[in-house]
Protein backbone atom coordinates (compact mmCIF):
# COMPACT_ATOMS: atom_id res chain seq x y z
CA UNK A 1 0.00 0.00 0.00
CA UNK A 2 2.83 2.36 0.89
CA UNK A 3 4.52 1.72 -2.44
CA UNK A 4 1.27 2.33 -4.30
CA UNK A 5 0.65 5.60 -2.48
CA UNK A 6 4.22 6.71 -3.22
CA UNK A 7 3.74 5.95 -6.92
CA UNK A 8 0.53 8.03 -7.02
CA UNK A 9 2.23 10.96 -5.27
CA UNK A 10 5.16 10.84 -7.69
CA UNK A 11 2.78 10.71 -10.68
CA UNK A 12 0.88 13.78 -9.46
CA UNK A 13 4.13 15.64 -8.82
CA UNK A 14 5.41 14.83 -12.32
CA UNK A 15 2.11 16.00 -13.85
CA UNK A 16 2.31 19.32 -12.02
CA UNK A 17 5.93 19.80 -13.04
CA UNK A 18 5.07 18.92 -16.62
CA UNK A 19 2.18 21.44 -16.76
CA UNK A 20 4.35 24.15 -15.26
CA UNK A 21 7.07 23.37 -17.78
CA UNK A 22 4.65 23.64 -20.68
CA UNK A 23 3.27 26.93 -19.34
CA UNK A 24 6.72 28.43 -18.94
CA UNK A 25 7.75 27.22 -22.38
CA UNK A 26 4.66 28.72 -24.06
CA UNK A 27 5.10 31.97 -22.15
CA UNK A 28 8.76 32.21 -23.13
CA UNK A 29 7.87 31.28 -26.73
CA UNK A 30 5.28 34.08 -26.85
CA UNK A 31 7.83 36.49 -25.43
CA UNK A 32 10.41 35.40 -28.02
CA UNK A 33 7.84 35.73 -30.81
CA UNK A 34 6.89 39.25 -29.75
CA UNK A 35 10.51 40.20 -29.26
CA UNK A 36 11.33 38.90 -32.72
CA UNK A 37 8.59 41.08 -34.21
CA UNK A 38 9.49 44.25 -32.27
CA UNK A 39 6.82 44.55 -29.59
CA UNK A 40 5.22 47.92 -28.83
CA UNK A 41 2.89 49.19 -26.12
CA UNK A 42 -0.70 49.81 -27.24
CA UNK A 43 -3.81 51.16 -25.55
CA UNK A 44 -6.85 48.85 -25.47
CA UNK A 45 -10.29 49.88 -24.20
CA UNK A 46 -11.14 47.85 -21.10
CA UNK A 47 -14.81 48.90 -21.33
CA UNK A 48 -17.16 50.74 -23.70
CA UNK A 49 -16.13 54.38 -24.15
CA UNK A 50 -18.92 56.73 -25.32
CA UNK A 51 -18.54 59.28 -28.12
CA UNK A 52 -17.53 62.70 -26.81
CA UNK A 53 -15.22 61.34 -24.08
CA UNK A 54 -12.16 63.54 -23.54
CA UNK A 55 -8.73 62.11 -24.33
CA UNK A 56 -7.72 62.55 -20.69
CA UNK A 57 -10.73 60.54 -19.51
CA UNK A 58 -10.04 57.83 -22.09
CA UNK A 59 -6.69 57.16 -20.42
CA UNK A 60 -8.57 56.01 -17.31
CA UNK A 61 -10.60 53.50 -19.33
CA UNK A 62 -7.80 51.67 -21.15
CA UNK A 63 -5.20 48.99 -20.46
CA UNK A 64 -1.64 48.94 -21.78
CA UNK A 65 -0.68 45.79 -23.63
CA UNK A 66 2.31 44.50 -25.61
CA UNK A 67 1.63 43.55 -29.22
CA UNK A 68 3.80 42.90 -32.30
CA UNK A 69 4.31 46.18 -34.15
CA UNK A 70 3.48 44.54 -37.48
CA UNK A 71 -0.04 43.61 -36.29
CA UNK A 72 -1.30 47.04 -35.23
CA UNK A 73 -2.19 50.26 -37.13
CA UNK A 74 0.50 52.88 -37.58
CA UNK A 75 -1.51 55.51 -35.65
CA UNK A 76 -2.18 53.34 -32.58
CA UNK A 77 -1.62 55.14 -29.27
CA UNK A 78 0.68 53.96 -26.47
CA UNK A 79 0.07 56.96 -24.18
CA UNK A 80 -1.73 60.30 -24.07
CA UNK A 81 -0.38 62.09 -27.12
CA UNK A 82 0.00 65.88 -26.89
CA UNK A 83 -1.67 66.19 -30.30
CA UNK A 84 -4.97 64.81 -28.96
CA UNK A 85 -4.95 66.15 -25.39
CA UNK A 86 -7.72 68.68 -26.20
CA UNK A 87 -9.77 66.33 -28.40
CA UNK A 88 -12.73 64.00 -27.74
CA UNK A 89 -13.72 60.62 -29.16
CA UNK A 90 -15.63 61.01 -32.44
CA UNK A 91 -17.59 57.77 -31.99
CA UNK A 92 -18.07 54.99 -29.47
CA UNK A 93 -15.02 52.81 -28.75
CA UNK A 94 -15.92 49.18 -28.11
CA UNK A 95 -14.46 47.10 -25.29
CA UNK A 96 -11.22 45.46 -26.46
CA UNK A 97 -10.76 47.92 -29.36
CA UNK A 98 -7.34 49.44 -30.05
CA UNK A 99 -7.23 53.19 -29.42
CA UNK A 100 -5.89 55.18 -32.38
CA UNK A 101 -5.49 58.88 -33.17
CA UNK A 102 -8.17 58.60 -35.85
CA UNK A 103 -10.79 58.04 -33.14
CA UNK A 104 -10.47 61.62 -31.85
CA UNK A 105 -11.89 64.89 -33.12
CA UNK A 106 -12.39 68.48 -31.96
CA UNK A 107 -15.22 68.89 -29.47
CA UNK A 108 -16.71 71.65 -31.63
CA UNK A 109 -17.30 69.21 -34.49
CA UNK A 110 -19.20 66.77 -32.28
CA UNK A 111 -22.88 67.25 -31.52
CA UNK A 112 -24.93 64.53 -29.85
CA UNK A 113 -22.52 61.85 -31.02
CA UNK A 114 -22.20 63.21 -34.57
CA UNK A 115 -18.70 63.69 -35.94
CA UNK A 116 -18.59 66.08 -38.88
CA UNK A 117 -15.82 65.19 -41.39
CA UNK A 118 -13.11 67.81 -41.88
CA UNK A 119 -13.99 70.46 -44.45
CA UNK A 120 -17.69 69.58 -44.45
CA UNK A 121 -20.86 70.83 -42.79
CA UNK A 122 -24.00 69.09 -41.56
CA UNK A 123 -27.32 69.83 -43.24
CA UNK A 124 -30.66 68.49 -42.02
CA UNK A 125 -33.66 67.69 -44.21
CA UNK A 126 -37.11 66.74 -42.84
CA UNK A 127 -38.56 63.67 -44.59
CA UNK A 128 -41.52 61.34 -44.63
CA UNK A 129 -40.94 57.56 -44.49
CA UNK A 130 -41.43 57.18 -48.25
CA UNK A 131 -38.75 59.81 -48.88
CA UNK A 132 -35.99 57.84 -47.12
CA UNK A 133 -36.26 54.33 -48.59
CA UNK A 134 -38.97 53.25 -46.18
CA UNK A 135 -36.81 53.73 -43.10
CA UNK A 136 -33.84 51.68 -44.35
CA UNK A 137 -31.52 54.67 -44.28
CA UNK A 138 -29.51 54.85 -41.05
CA UNK A 139 -26.47 56.60 -39.62
CA UNK A 140 -23.47 55.75 -41.79
CA UNK A 141 -25.53 55.02 -44.92
CA UNK A 142 -24.45 56.38 -48.29
CA UNK A 143 -27.29 58.02 -50.19
CA UNK A 144 -28.23 59.70 -53.44
CA UNK A 145 -30.70 62.59 -53.41
CA UNK A 146 -33.33 63.05 -56.11
CA UNK A 147 -35.37 66.23 -56.57
CA UNK A 148 -38.90 66.39 -58.01
CA UNK A 149 -39.97 69.93 -58.93
CA UNK A 150 -42.35 71.95 -61.06
CA UNK A 151 -40.67 73.08 -64.27
CA UNK A 152 -40.50 76.77 -65.14
CA UNK A 153 -42.59 77.58 -68.24
CA UNK A 154 -43.50 73.88 -68.47
CA UNK A 155 -40.32 72.84 -70.25
CA UNK A 156 -36.60 72.38 -69.63
CA UNK A 157 -35.12 71.51 -66.23
CA UNK A 158 -35.33 74.81 -64.35
CA UNK A 159 -37.45 74.75 -61.16
CA UNK A 160 -40.30 77.25 -61.19
CA UNK A 161 -39.54 78.18 -57.60
CA UNK A 162 -43.09 77.82 -56.28
CA UNK A 163 -42.77 74.32 -54.88
CA UNK A 164 -44.18 71.11 -56.30
CA UNK A 165 -47.42 72.15 -57.99
CA UNK A 166 -50.16 69.54 -58.24
CA UNK A 167 -52.06 71.32 -61.01
CA UNK A 168 -52.42 68.90 -63.93
CA UNK A 169 -51.46 71.51 -66.53
CA UNK A 170 -48.09 72.11 -64.92
CA UNK A 171 -45.08 70.00 -65.89
CA UNK A 172 -42.91 68.29 -63.26
CA UNK A 173 -39.40 66.87 -63.53
CA UNK A 174 -37.32 64.48 -61.39
CA UNK A 175 -33.53 64.57 -61.51
CA UNK A 176 -30.55 63.33 -59.55
CA UNK A 177 -29.42 66.23 -57.38
CA UNK A 178 -26.52 64.78 -55.35
CA UNK A 179 -24.97 61.37 -54.74
CA UNK A 180 -22.47 59.71 -52.41
CA UNK A 181 -23.55 61.66 -49.33
CA UNK A 182 -22.81 60.22 -45.89
CA UNK A 183 -25.70 60.16 -43.42
CA UNK A 184 -24.59 61.49 -40.03
CA UNK A 185 -27.81 60.76 -38.18
CA UNK A 186 -31.47 59.90 -38.57
CA UNK A 187 -33.94 60.98 -35.92
CA UNK A 188 -36.43 58.25 -36.69
CA UNK A 189 -40.15 57.76 -36.53
CA UNK A 190 -40.15 56.76 -32.87
CA UNK A 191 -38.50 59.99 -31.73
CA UNK A 192 -40.52 62.12 -34.12
CA UNK A 193 -43.75 60.46 -33.02
CA UNK A 194 -43.16 61.77 -29.52
CA UNK A 195 -43.52 65.25 -31.03
CA UNK A 196 -46.68 64.29 -32.87
CA UNK A 197 -45.07 63.92 -36.31
CA UNK A 198 -45.85 60.27 -37.01
CA UNK A 199 -43.98 58.98 -40.09
CA UNK A 200 -41.56 61.88 -40.21
CA UNK A 201 -37.80 61.73 -39.64
CA UNK A 202 -34.92 64.17 -39.70
CA UNK A 203 -32.02 63.14 -41.94
CA UNK A 204 -28.67 64.88 -41.43
CA UNK A 205 -25.95 64.52 -44.07
CA UNK A 206 -22.36 65.74 -44.44
CA UNK A 207 -21.78 68.01 -47.45
CA UNK A 208 -19.44 70.61 -48.87
CA UNK A 209 -20.74 74.19 -48.96
CA UNK A 210 -21.73 74.09 -52.64
CA UNK A 211 -23.69 70.87 -52.14
CA UNK A 212 -25.31 72.30 -49.01
CA UNK A 213 -26.60 75.22 -51.09
CA UNK A 214 -28.02 72.85 -53.71
CA UNK A 215 -29.60 70.62 -51.09
CA UNK A 216 -31.25 73.50 -49.24
CA UNK A 217 -32.44 75.16 -52.46
CA UNK A 218 -33.83 71.88 -53.76
CA UNK A 219 -35.73 71.36 -50.54
CA UNK A 220 -37.21 74.86 -50.78
CA UNK A 221 -38.33 74.57 -54.40
CA UNK A 222 -39.31 70.90 -54.73
CA UNK A 223 -39.54 67.54 -52.95
CA UNK A 224 -36.42 65.54 -52.08
CA UNK A 225 -36.07 61.75 -52.01
CA UNK A 226 -33.16 59.93 -50.36
CA UNK A 227 -32.13 56.71 -52.13
CA UNK A 228 -30.01 54.14 -50.28
CA UNK A 229 -26.78 53.25 -52.12
CA UNK A 230 -25.24 49.78 -52.07
CA UNK A 231 -21.62 48.84 -52.63
CA UNK A 232 -22.16 48.42 -56.38
CA UNK A 233 -24.89 50.98 -57.03
CA UNK A 234 -24.53 52.86 -60.32
CA UNK A 235 -25.77 56.45 -60.20
CA UNK A 236 -24.90 59.04 -62.83
CA UNK A 237 -26.10 62.63 -63.45
CA UNK A 238 -28.51 63.17 -66.32
CA UNK A 239 -31.52 65.11 -67.57
CA UNK A 240 -33.89 62.98 -65.53
CA UNK A 241 -37.53 62.62 -66.59
CA UNK A 242 -40.54 64.91 -66.78
CA UNK A 243 -44.23 64.36 -67.52
CA UNK A 244 -43.53 64.19 -71.25
CA UNK A 245 -40.60 61.76 -71.15
CA UNK A 246 -41.75 59.50 -68.31
CA UNK A 247 -42.70 56.71 -70.70
CA UNK A 248 -39.91 57.36 -73.18
CA UNK A 249 -41.90 59.62 -75.49
From TrEMBL:
<dbReference type="InterPro" id="IPR031571">
    <property type="entry name" value="RcpC_dom"/>
</dbReference>
<dbReference type="Pfam" id="PF16976">
    <property type="entry name" value="RcpC"/>
</dbReference>
<feature type="domain" description="Flp pilus assembly protein RcpC/CpaB">
    <location>
        <begin position="115"/>
        <end position="228"/>
    </location>
</feature>
<dbReference type="InterPro" id="IPR017592">
    <property type="entry name" value="Pilus_assmbl_Flp-typ_CpaB"/>
</dbReference>
<protein>
    <submittedName>
        <fullName>Flp pilus assembly protein CpaB</fullName>
    </submittedName>
</protein>
Amino acid sequence: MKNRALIIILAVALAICGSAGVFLYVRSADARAIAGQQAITVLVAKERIPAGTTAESVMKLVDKQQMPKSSVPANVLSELDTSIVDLVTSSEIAEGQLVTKALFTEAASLAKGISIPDGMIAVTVPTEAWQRAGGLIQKGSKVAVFDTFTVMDGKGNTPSGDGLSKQYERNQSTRLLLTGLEVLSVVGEKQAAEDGDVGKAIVTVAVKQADAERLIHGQQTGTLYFALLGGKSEVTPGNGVDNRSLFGN
